[in-house]
C-alpha cells in the first residue's frame, strides 16, 4: 500500500492553465475517485502522479518520498489505461507477465506470478487466448492483472470501464470493489461517471476547471454540497436549483421566489435579507394530492419503472420530483409540493458557495469550525 500526496500541484500547457494549485492527500489503502466533467483536468492530474506528465509547479510525494521528477519506472505505481493497451500478438499469459519479463525475472517466477494473479481475477481459463478473442470485460481484467502482477503500492486507473456496455460496466464495477477489499491497495481512479464514483469511492475529489470543488465521502458530497456546481453535478436527476431571496417574516426567516415560499425555522434577528440560490433534491419533494403545500402544475411525467420523474412548474420555476410509481398524476394536473426545512440547501447567489447558519456567538467556534464554514447567513 502507498500514501500519495499532492502539494500545490499546477500544470500549464502554454498559456492554458489545466490544473490550479491542487492539494490532495490519498491515504494508504484508500479508493480515491477523481470525478468531474470532460476537460476538468482529472486525467492530467492522474498522469502527473504516474510520471507521464510533469507538473509546472508543486510536489508529488509517495510514502513521503518526493517523486515529482522521478520517471514512471521508478515509481511504485501501476497504470490501467482506458484503452487497456494490450499487445494483440501476445497471449493473455504473456500480456500479464510482460512487466516481469522486462525486469529479467526468472521464467518460473514469472509463470508463478502470472498464475497467482490470473487465479485472483478468474483469468486462468483464458491464459492461452489473445486479446482479440476476449470480451471487453475480460480485456479489462487482463489489463488489471498486468498491473497487479508487479505488486505495486498503488493502482492508477483512467476511466477503465468507459468502453464497456452498461450491464458489463455494472458487473465489473462490483468486481473492482471486491478486489479493492481483498488486496487493500491504494486506488486512484478517474471517471466522469457519478454512479461509479458514488458506489466505489472511499472519498471523491470532485474537480471543475482544473480546481478541486470538494473532497469528501460520497455521502458528504451528496448531502452537503459546498457549491452549486457540486449540487448540480451529483444526482440523477440533479438537485433542483432556483433563484430566491431570504427574507424576514414575523421574526422568522423565509425563502421566497415567485409563487414559492418556505420557512427556514431560523430567527431573523440581526439577519439582513439577501439573494440566494435554493437547492432541493428531487427525491425530497413530496407530491400531495390533498391540497397541502406549494401549488404546482404538472408538465411531464417520466416512467423509470419503479419510480417516476414528475416535472412541475411553480410560477416560472421548473422543478423535478422523484417519486414512487405510480404517482397518479398527468400533465396539466395541479399538485401540491411538500417540503421539509431540513431538505432546503442555500447557496450564495453570486459565488455559488454553500451558506450555513452560524449563531451570534460564531466567533467562539474553534478555528477549524470557522475555517470550514463558508459564507454564513449572518454576513
Explained architecture:
The structure is a single chain. The chain has 379 residues and is α+β, with helices and mostly antiparallel strands. It folds into two domains: 4-233, P-loop containing nucleotide triphosphate hydrolases (Rossmann fold), CATH 3.40.50.300; 240-372, OB fold (Dihydrolipoamide Acetyltransferase, E2P), CATH 2.40.50.140. It contains nine helices and 20 strands. Helix 5 (166-183) links the parallel strand 7 (154-158) and strand 8 (186-191). Helix 2 crosses helix 3 (107-120) and helix 2 (92-101) packs parallel to helix 4 (136-148).
Write the layout of secondary structure elements.
Layout: E1 4-13, E2 16-26, E3 31-35, H1 42-50, E4 57-62, E5 65-66, E6 77-80, H2 92-101, H3 107-120, H4 136-148, E7 154-158, H5 166-183, E8 186-191, H6 194-200, E9 203-208, E10 211-216, H7 218-223, H8 228-233, E11 240-249, E12 252-257, E13 260-267, E14 274-280, E15 286-288, E16 294-303, E17 307-314, E18 317-324, E19 334-338, E20 345-348, H9 367-372
Parallel strand pairs: 3-8, 3-9, 6-7, 7-8
Antiparallel strand pairs: 1-2, 1-4, 4-5, 9-10, 11-12, 11-14, 12-13, 14-20, 15-19, 16-17, 16-19, 17-18
Amino acid at each position: 500500500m502507498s500514501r500519495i500526496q499532492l502539494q500545490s500541484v499546477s500544470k500549464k500547457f502554454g498559456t492554458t492553465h489545466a490544473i490550479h494549485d491542487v492539494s490532495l492527500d490519498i491515504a494508504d489503502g484508500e479508493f480515491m475517485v477523481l470525478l468531474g466533467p470532460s476537460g476538468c483536468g482529472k486525467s492530467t492530474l492522474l498522469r502527473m502522479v504516474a510520471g507521464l506528465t510533469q507538473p509546472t509547479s508543486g510536489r508529488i510525494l509517495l510514502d513521503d518520498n518526493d517523486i515529482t521528477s522521478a520517471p514512471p519506472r521508478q515509481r511504485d505505481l501501476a497504470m490501467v489505461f482506458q484503452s487497456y493497451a494490450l499487445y494483440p500478438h501476445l497471449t493473455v499469459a504473456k500480456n500479464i507477465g510482460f512487466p516481469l519479463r522486462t525486469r529479467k525475472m526468472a521464467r518460473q517466477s514469472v509463470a508463478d506470478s502470472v498464475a497467482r494473479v490470473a487465479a485472483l481475477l478468474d483469468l486462468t481459463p483464458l491464459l492461452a487466448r489473445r486479446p482479440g478473442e476476449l470480451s471487453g470485460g475480460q480485456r479489462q481484467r487482463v489489463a488489471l492483472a498486468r498491473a497487479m502482477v508487479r505488486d505495486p503500492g498503488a493502482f492508477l486507473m483512467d476511466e477503465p470501464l468507459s468502453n464497456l456496455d452498461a450491464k458489463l460496466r455494472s458487473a465489473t464495477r462490483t468486481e473492482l470493489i471486491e478486489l479493492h477489499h481483498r488486496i487493500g491497495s491504494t486506488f486512484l481512479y478517474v471517471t466522469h461517471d457519478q454512479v461509479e464514483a458514488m458506489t466505489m469511492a472511499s472519498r471523491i475529489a470532485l474537480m471543475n476547471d482544473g480546481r478541486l470543488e470538494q473532497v469528501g465521502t460520497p455521502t458528504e458530497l451528496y448531502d452537503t454540497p459546498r457549491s452549486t456546481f457540486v449540487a448540480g453535478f451529483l444526482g440523477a436527476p440533479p438537485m433542483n436549483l432556483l433563484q430566491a431571496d431570504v427574507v424576514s417574516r414575523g421574526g422568522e426567516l423565509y425563502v421566497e421566489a415567485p409563487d414559492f415560499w418556505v420557512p427556514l425555522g431560523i430567527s431573523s434577528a440581526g439577519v439582513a435579507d439577501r439573494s440566494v440560490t435554493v437547492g432541493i433534491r428531487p427525491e425530497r419533494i413530496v407530491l400531495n394530492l390533498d391540497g397541502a403545500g406549494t401549488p404546482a402544475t404538472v408538465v411531464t411525467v417520466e416512467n423509470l419503472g419503479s419510480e417516476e420523474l414528475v416535472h412541475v412548474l411553480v410560477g416560472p420555476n421548473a422543478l423535478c420530483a422523484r417519486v414512487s410509481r405510480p404517482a397518479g398524476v398527468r400533465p396539466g394536473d395541479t399538485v401540491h409540493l411538500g417540503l421539509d426545512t431540513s431538505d432546503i440547501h442555500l447557496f450564495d447567489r453570486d459565488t455559488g458557495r454553500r451558506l450555513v447558519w452560524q449563531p451570534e456567538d460564531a466567533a467562539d467556534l474553534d478555528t477549524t469550525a470557522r475555517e470550514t464554514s463558508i459564507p454564513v447567513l449572518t454576513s
